[in-house]
Specification:
The protein has about 1050 residues and is an alpha+beta fold. It is built from 26 helices and 38 strands. It folds into five domains: about 190 residues, Beta-Lactamase (2-Layer Sandwich), CATH 3.30.450.20; about 250 residues, 2-Layer Sandwich (Beta-Lactamase), CATH 3.30.450.20; about 100 residues, PAS domain (Beta-Lactamase); about 180 residues, 3-Layer(aba) Sandwich (Rossmann fold); about 160 residues, 2-Layer Sandwich (Heat Shock Protein 90), CATH 3.30.565. About 40% of the residues lie in helices and about 25% in strands. It catalyses: ATP + protein L-histidine = ADP + protein N-phospho-L-histidine.
C-alpha cells in the first residue's frame, strides 16, 4: 500500500514548493528520499480542480526552467545585485532633513504654547486686579453714602439747626461716631465741612483748616449733590498720598447743608494689592496710570523706579505701550516697550468709572526663557536621532553585505544537492513516472511505473514508449493514442480521457489516469516528455461506494417528512429536501443566492445568533422557533442545527431540520382550554350544589307561608317577593351550570317578551342613570324553542357588552324584539339560514364601535379588547355557541366611533305550541296522598321543610338525617314504606348506594333522588340503578307533589 500526506517543503530561499511526504508502507522507497518536491493530487479525470498539476511540476523539474537551473544561471553569470552605499547615504540625509524640519516646527509650536500660557496668566491677573480695584472703589463710595445718609445726617441736621452751631452738644456725638467708623473701616480720616469748605469736624485733630486741594472736591459735591470719588492726590499739609470720597449731607427737605469726606490711604490696601503677584515671576509688575496734561502719571510705586507715587511722569510719546493703547482705544494684550524701554508683554485696561489705566506686564525675555530651554531639548533630541540614523545605516549595510555572502554560500550548497533531490523526487513519488526523449523512447522509469507496466527500468530504457506503455479504452477496447506524441507535437500538457486502461506486460489490466508535459531546455526547446499516471482501481471502488451512499442518503432525505435545509458557513442555502417545498412552499431555484424568506424578520437575528453559538460550541442545538410558509402563515417549529467541518476543523456549514409543531401547539392550547373549562365546571358544580341546598328550604318554607298568609296582605306580597327572589337565584345557579357546560339543556317553548322585559328590568337597576336605556318589544307574542336560562344569559351578555362600550363616554342602549322573515337564498353573517320566520333580538349602543380589523375575531374564545381584569373574552363566544345551538345565527354591525348593533335570529315556533309558564308561589290545587314516605337528607333545615311540606299534602313521613339509620329501618320492614325520597350527597352512604341497597331488599320500591346538581348522576345511570326520578333542587311544592304522584301512579300501574 502507498500513502502520501500533503506537506510543504522549502527547497531554497524565496522558493516554496508543495510536496508529498512519504508515509510508511511503500515497498520500493529509495534511500535518502524522505521528501519528494512533487505535488500529486488526482481525481477520476487526472487531477483535482484548482490543485497544482503534477505533470507540469514534473516537467519543470526536468526542465532548464526549473528553479534549480535558474539559480545555476544566476550564480554563473554573477549578476547578484549589491545594495549601494550612495542610497544609504541619501536615506540618512533625507532622514536628517526631516528630523531638523520637524524639530524646527516643534520649537515654533512650543514658543506659541509658552507665549499663549503667559498671556493667559497676565490677562487673568489683570482681570482679577481690575475687579478688585472696582470693588474697592464701590465699597468706599458705599461707605460715604451710608454715613452721609444715616444717623450722622440726623445728628448733623440737629447740630446745624442749633443756635450754637458747630459748638452744639451734638458735635461730640458726631465726632465719636466718625472716630468709630475710621477705626473700624481702616480710614485715614473723616472730615465734615459746610458747603463753603469751612472745616466743621475732623477726626484727625492735627487738621485745623481744610487744605486747598480738597476745596474742588467740596465744590463738586455741592454742585452734583451726589457721592464723588476724588483722584489719588498728594496732601498739601502732610505731603502724603490719599484718596478722598465725599458726599452731601441733606436736610429734611433734601437740600445739602454739609459735606462728609472719607479719606483713605492707598498704601493700606491698594498699593500692596498692585504689588502682589501669584507665583514667582522676577519681571512681572502691575501699575496704575492716568493721563494728565499730556503726560502719563504713575499713581503707585513702580517696581523699577524709586520715585514716590505721582512723582513719575512721562510723555505719552515716550511710553510706547500707553501710546498704542490710547491710539487703539481698546483694552487687551500689547507687546512693546514699557517705561523702562524694555520689551514686555502687557495687558492694558481701564478702571470703569475712573480715568485710571491698569497695566499688567511681564518681560518678553522671561516669557521666552522657557522656550529656549525647550529648544535646547529639541535640538539635542534631533541630534541624537540623526546620530542613531547614521549608526543604524552603517549596521544595516554591514548586515546586508554579510547576508549577501551567506546567500552565495547557500546557493552553492543547493546546487550540489539538486541532482540528489531530482532523483529522490523521481523515484520517491507515489505515481508512475516515465520520461522520454524527443523520439519517444524511454529514458527513465520510477519503481511505481515498473510495477504498473511490468517492465523494469533497465529493460525499458531505449525502447519506444508504445511498447512499454500500452493503453486502451475501457469501453470500446480500442487502442488509445499515446499522449507523448501529442505533447511533442503541441508542446503543451496533454491529459487522457476517462475510462483509459493500462495493459501490463503480463496482461493485467488497470484503470488509470495519466497526462504528459514537455521537458524544455534553457532556451525553451522541448527535449523530452514526462508522463505521469496512477492506478485508479481503488479510487473507482471508493467512487462506487460514494455514489451508493449518496443515493441512499438522497432516498432518506426524500423520505423524511420534516423540512431539511443545508447551509454553508455564511448561512446560504445549499440544499433542500422535498418536504421543505411541501411544508414551506419554496423551491430551491427560488432561494439560490442566500435568500431565506421562510425566516420571519423578527427571527433573523436569533437565527444568526444560533448559528454563531453552534459553530463556537460545536454541539447540536435543539430549540423551538417560528417560520412562515409561502402563504405568509406562521408555523411553530422545532429546529435542530448540526454543524459539519472540513479536514482542518474549520466549519463549512450546517444542516437544519425543522419539525412542524403548529398542530401540536394548537392541541396543547385546546387541552389547556379544556382543562380550564373543566376546572370552572367543577367549581360551578360545587357552588350550584351548595347554593341549591340553601335555596331549597327558603323556597319551600316561603311557599308554605304564602299558603297561610292572608290574601292581598302586605305579608303575602313580601313573601311573594322572597319566593320570586329564590326563583331568580335558582335561575342564576342554572346560568352558572350552563356556562360550565354541566347543566342539562332542556329546550321548551318559551315566550320571549317576559324574558326580555325581565332582563331589561334587571340591567336597568344596575346600569348608571346617565346611560339611556330604551326597550322596544313587539306586542304580539313571540315563541321560540329554547332554554329560558340560556336566553337570559344571551341577553345579559349582549347588554353588558353594550354598557362597557358607553361606560366612560355616556350614550344609550336600545333593546328590541320583533319578528323577521327571511326570504330564500338570504344569508345573515355566517352560514345561510333557511328561509322562514325568525325572532329578531337587536341590541344597539352608541359607543366607540369595533375596529373592522378585529370584527371577525370577536366571537373567538378568550378574545377581548378590554383591559386586563375587565373581561374574560368568553361572553360573546358563549352567546355565539348558544344561538348556534338553538338553530339561529348572530351577526354584528359596527361603525368605528358611532356604535355597534348585534342581531340575534332565532327560529319561531308554530302557533299551536305553547310556551312554558312562569313559576308561581300562589296556592294551587296540588295533588296529595296518604302513602308512607321514607325521607333521607343530611341537611336538617331541608329535611324539616320537606317533612312539613309532605305532611301538609297528606303523606305520612319518617325523616332521617343518617342514611345508614334509614337503611336499618327500611331493612326491618321493607313493606312498611310506599316511597323513598333521598338526597344524592350523603356523608356515610351516598343516595345511589342507598337506592341500590333498598332495591336489593324490595325491587318494586319507588325511589326519588333529590340533588343540587343533576350532572353527578345522569338519568340513564339513575334508570339503570332502578331510580324512578331525579328531582333537581330547589323544588316548589307543586313540582314535588306532581312528581310524587307521577312516580306512585307509574309504580301501581
Amino acid at each position: 500500500m502507498r500513502s502520501w500526506k500533503w506537506s510543504k517543503k522549502r527547497l531554497a530561499k524565496k522558493h516554496d514548493k508543495w510536496s508529498w511526504r512519504w508515509a510508511p508502507g511503500h515497498e520500493s522507497r529509495p534511500e535518502n528520499t524522505a521528501h519528494c518536491p512533487l505535488p500529486t493530487i488526482f481525481t477520476i479525470n487526472g487531477h483535482g480542480e484548482g490543485a497544482p498539476n503534477p505533470v507540469m511540476e514534473m516537467g519543470q523539474l526536468f526542465s532548464a526552467h526549473c528553479p534549480l537551473y535558474q539559480r545555476n544561471r544566476v550564480m554563473n553569470r554573477s549578476k547578484i545585485m549589491r545594495p549601494g552605499k550612495t542610497a544609504a547615504g541619501a536615506i540618512v540625509v533625507l532622514f536628517s532633513a526631516v528630523v531638523l524640519f520637524t524639530g524646527f516646527h516643534l520649537y515654533q509650536d512650543q514658543a506659541r504654547i509658552v507665549r499663549h500660557h503667559h498671556a493667559q496668566t497676565i490677562q487673568s491677573v489683570a482681570a482679577l486686579k481690575a475687579q478688585l480695584i472696582q470693588n474697592w472703589r464701590t465699597e468706599r463710595m458705599d461707605d460715604a453714602r451710608m454715613n452721609s445718609t444715616g444717623i450722622l445726617r440726623t445728628m448733623v441736621n440737629e447740630m446745624m439747626a442749633s443756635e450754637s452751631g458747630p459748638e452744639a452738644p451734638q458735635r461730640a456725638m458726631i465726632l465719636d461716631r466718625m472716630r468709630f467708623f475710621v477705626e473700624h473701616e481702616r480710614l485715614k480720616n473723616m472730615i465734615l465741612t459746610d458747603l463753603e469748605g469751612n472745616l466743621l469736624i475732623s477726626v484727625n485733630p492735627q487738621l485745623k483748616t481744610l487744605p486747598e486741594d480738597v476745596l474742588p472736591l467740596v465744590q463738586r459735591i455741592r454742585e452734583t449733590e451726589t457721592i464723588v470719588f476724588d483722584e489719588i492726590n498728594l496732601c498739601s499739609v502732610g505731603h502724603t498720598i490719599h484718596v478722598d470720597v465725599g458726599g452731601p449731607v441733606l436736610d429734611a427737605q433734601g437740600r445739602p447743608i454739609a459735606c462728609l469726606i472719607l479719606r483713605s490711604d492707598p498704601k493700606d490696601w491698594l498699593f500692596p494689592m498692585l504689588a502682589a503677584w501669584p507665583g514667582t515671576s522676577p519681571s512681572a509688575e502691575t501699575a496704575l496710570f492716568r493721563i494728565e496734561d499730556g503726560q502719563v502719571v504713575s499713581l503707585c510705586n513702580l517696581k523699577y523706579r524709586s520715585e514716590a507715587p505721582l512723582a513719575h511722569k512721562q510723555r505719552i510719546e515716550d511710553n510706547d505701550l500707553i501710546r498704542r493703547y490710547l491710539n487703539q482705544a481698546k483694552e487687551g494684550l500689547y507687546e512693546g516697550l514699557d517705561y523702562r524701554w524694555v520689551h514686555v508683554l502687557a495687558d492694558i485696561r481701564p478702571i470703569v468709572g475712573s480715568d485710571w489705566i491698569l497695566m499688567t506686564k511681564m518681560d518678553v525675555d522671561e516669557v521666552y526663557s522657557e522656550v529656549h530651554d525647550r529648544g535646547m531639548v529639541i535640538a539635542l533630541v534631533c541630534l541624537a536621532l540623526i546620530v542613531i540614523a547614521i549608526i543604524a545605516a552603517a549596521l544595516t549595510l554591514h548586515r546586508i553585505e554579510r547576508g549577501h555572502l551567506q546567500a552565495l554560500i547557500r546557493e552553492e550548497r543547493l546546487l550540489r544537492k539538486a541532482n540528489e533531490e531530482i532523483r529522490a523526487a523521481f523515484y520517491g513519488i507515489g505515481d508512475g513516472v516515465i520520461t522520454t526523449d524527443v523520439e519517444g523512447n524511454v529514458v527513465r522509469m520510477n519503481p511505481v511505473a515498473e510495477t504498473l507496466t511490468g517492465w523494469t527500468e533497465a529493460e525499458a530504457v531505449g525502447r519506444p514508449l508504445t511498447e512499454i506503455f500500452h493503453i486502451v479504452n475501457e469501453t470500446t477496447r480500442q487502442k488509445v493514442e499515446n499522449p507523448v506524441y501529442e505533447v511533442l507535437a503541441t508542446g503543451v500538457i496533454v491529459g487522457l480521457a476517462n475510462h483509459t486502461a493500462l495493459i501490463a506486460r503480463d496482461g493485467t489490466e488497470r484503470p488509470i489516469a495519466d497526462s504528459g508535459a514537455p521537458i524544455r531546455d534553457e532556451d525553451g526547446k522541448v527535449t523530452g516528455v514526462v508522463l505521469v499516471f496512477r492506478d485508479q482501481t481503488q479510487e473507482r471502488t471508493y467512487l462506487k461506494t460514494l455514489q451508493q451512499n449518496e443515493a441512499r442518503l438522497r432516498a432518506i432525505l426524500d423520505a423524511v417528512a420534516d423540512p431539511i435545509i443545508v447551509y454553508d458557513s455564511e448561512a446560504r442555502p445549499q440544499f433542500i429536501n422535498p418536504a421543505f417545498t411541501k411544508v414551506l412552499g419554496w423551491n430551491f431555484d427560488e432561494i439560490v443566492g442566500g435568500a431565506t424568506p421562510w425566516i420571519p424578520e423578527d427571527q433573523q437575528a436569533g437565527f444568526h445568533e444560533k448559528r454563531t453559538e453552534m459553530f463556537e460550541t460545536g454541539i447540536t442545538l435543539r430549540f423551538e422557533t417560528q417560520r412562515k410558509n409561502r402563504d405568509g402563515r406562521t408555523l411553530d417549529m422545532l429546529a435542530c442545527y448540526a454543524p459539519f467541518y472540513d479536514a482542518d476543523g474549520n466549519p463549512t456549514g450546517f444542516v437544519a431540520c425543522l419539525t412542524d409543531l403548529t398542530r401540536i401547539k394548537e392541541m396543547e392550547r385546546e387541552v389547556r382550554q379544556a382543562q380550564k373549562m373543566e376546572a370552572i365546571g367543577a367549581l360551578a358544580a360545587g357552588i350550584a350544589h351548595d347554593f341549591n341546598n340553601i335555596l331549597f328550604p327558603i323556597s319551600g318554607l316561603t311557599q308554605m307561608c304564602l299558603w297561610d298568609a292572608p290574601k292581598e296582605s302586605a305579608m303575602q306580597q313580601n313573601l311573594q317577593k322572597i319566593f320570586e327572589s329564590t326563583q331568580r337565584a335558582a335561575d342564576l345557579v342554572q346560568q352558572i351550570l350552563t356556562f360550565s357546560r354541566r347543566a342539562e339543556i332542556r329546550k321548551t317553548p318559551v315566550i320571549l317578551q317576559p324574558i326580555i322585559k325581565e332582563v331589561f328590568k334587571l340591567t336597568r337597576s344596575t346600569i348608571p342613570a346617565n346611560i339611556d336605556m330604551q326597550l322596544d318589544v313587539q306586542p304580539e307574542l313571540i315563541r321560540v324553542m329554547a332554554d329560558p336560562t340560556q336566553l337570559h344569559q344571551v341577553m345579559m351578555n349582549l347588554i353588558t357588552n353594550a354598557y362597557h362600550a358607553v361606560e366612560h363616554t355616556g350614550g344609550s342602549i336600545r333593546l328590541e324584539l320583533m319578528e323577521a322573515r327571511l326570504e330564500k337564498n338570504r344569508t345573515i353573517g355566517g352560514p345561510s339560514l333557511p328561509p322562514g320566520r325568525y325572532a329578531l333580538i337587536r341590541v344597539s349602543d352608541t359607543g366607540c364601535g369595533i375596529d373592522p380589523a378585529i370584527l371577525d375575531k370577536i366571537f373567538e374564545p378568550y378574545f377581548t379588547t378590554k383591559p386586563h381584569g375587565k373581561g374574560t373574552g368568553l361572553g360573546l363566544a358563549v352567546v355565539h355557541g348558544i344561538v348556534t345551538e338553538l338553530g339561529g345565527d348572530i351577526r354584528c354591525e359596527s361603525w368605528l366611533g358611532n356604535g355597534t348593533t348585534f342581531h340575534v335570529y332565532l327560529p319561531l315556533l308554530v302557533a299551536q305550541e305553547e310556551a312554558a309558564s312562569e313559576p308561581s308561589a300562589k296556592p294551587l290545587d296540588v295533588p296529595g296522598g296518604t302513602e308512607r314516605i321514607l325521607l333521607v337528607d343530611d341537611e336538617k333545615p331541608i329535611i324539616d321543610m320537606e317533612q312539613r311540606m309532605l305532611e301538609r299534602l297528606g303523606y305520612t313521613v319518617e325523616a332521617f338525617l343518617d342514611s345508614e339509620e334509614a337503611l336499618v329501618h327500611f331493612t326491618a320492614d321493607p313493606k312498611r314504606y310506599d316511597l323513598i325520597i333521598s338526597d344524592l350527597s350523603l356523608p356515610k352512604m351516598m343516595g345511589e348506594e342507598l337506592a341500590k341497597q333498598a332495591l336489593s331488599l324490595r325491587p318494586d320500591i319507588p325511589i326519588i333522588i333529590c340533588t343540587g346538581f343533576t350532572d353527578r348522576i345522569g338519568e340513564q345511570k339513575a334508570k339503570a340503578i332502578g331510580i324512578r326520578a331525579l328531582a333537581p333542587k330547589p323544588l316548589t311544592v307543586e313540582k314535588l307533589a306532581v312528581l310524587i304522584r307521577k312516580v306512585l301512579e307509574e309504580t301501581s300501574s
